[in-house]
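User: Run a structure prediction on this.
Assistant: Running it now.
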Amino acid sequence: MDLDYVLLASVIITVGSFFLTVVTGTGLVRQVAGRRRAVRVPGVVVDVRTRDSGTARAGRRPTTYAPVLAFRTTDGREVQTESRVASNPPVAEAGQRVRVAYDPRDPAEAYVDTARGAGVVAYAAGFAIALFVLVIAASALLARLS
């Protein structure tokens, strides 16, 4: 293999990994900040909707499940909204009473108040994987340059 090609590939992988780490890290920070400002109230899951997500593998698309939440805001408004976060397996089942966290500026932006329900686990996992790939790629690039 041509050394210039290997070096170029190493640079591309390292830069791509860096940006992926920044994106997932920023998403994780936003999720955590959103959880801090969220208002928490009791609610109920009235339905669970399926979402097709990601790229089809072996002829099937991965399915995720988004709870439809019904709750009353602290100022008395009744809200019913589909959670902004979907997961597999579902974070809650229809009929289940849950604690709902919502954005006080936009109560339709709500989710089941757990780390998984807020999407923090997914961002944290993505960040950890991206950081791992970045460290490996940067180490390989530095080894090639020295």
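The two ends are 18 Å apart (CA to CA).
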